């Protein structure tokens, strides 16, 4: 068995690769959502289907964050 110390001695890139491999090995059908999560996802899907949801590109989000950060504080 691999010891945690061996993993911690790997480079960040190597550890990220291990995380990716572990994540990819998990069958999403084995993960059960809580009722609250299911309800939230159903609500969001319903809003999407009704056209009530606004989407933003990553560029728009970054631009907004940068604009907010650059505004002087009172």
Describe the structure.
With 74 residues, the protein is mainly alpha-helical. The chain is 64% helix and 0% strand. It is built from four helices and no strands.
List the helices and strands and how they pair.
Layout (H helix, E strand, L loop, with lengths): L3 H5 L3 H14 L9 H15 L8 H13 L4
Task: Briefly characterize the structure.
The chain has 74 residues and is mainly alpha-helical. Helix content is 64%, strand content 0%.
Key attributes of the depicted protein:
single chain, 74 residues, mainly alpha, 4 helices, 64% helix, 0% strand
Oligomer: single chain
Write the H/E string, N to C: HHHH
Number of strands: 0
* DSSP helical segment count: 4
Helix content: 55-70%
Q: Give the C-alpha Rg.
A: 20 Å
For the sheet with most strands, the description reads: none
Weakly predicted, low-confidence segments: none
Query: Overall mean pLDDT score?
Result: 92
Secondary structure class reads mainly alpha
- Please tell me what the overall shape is: flat
Query: CA-to-CA gap between the ends?
Result: 56 Å
């Amino acid at each position: 068995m691999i010891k945690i110390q061996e993993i911690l001695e790997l480079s960040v890139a190597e550890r990220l690769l291990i995380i990716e491999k572990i994540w990819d090995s998990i069958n999403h059908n084995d993960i059960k959502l809580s009722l609250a999560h299911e309800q939230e996802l159903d609500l969001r899907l319903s809003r999407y289907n009704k056209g009530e949801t606004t989407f933003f590109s990553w560029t728009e989000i970054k631009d907004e964050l940068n604009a907010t950060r650059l505004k002087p504080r009172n």
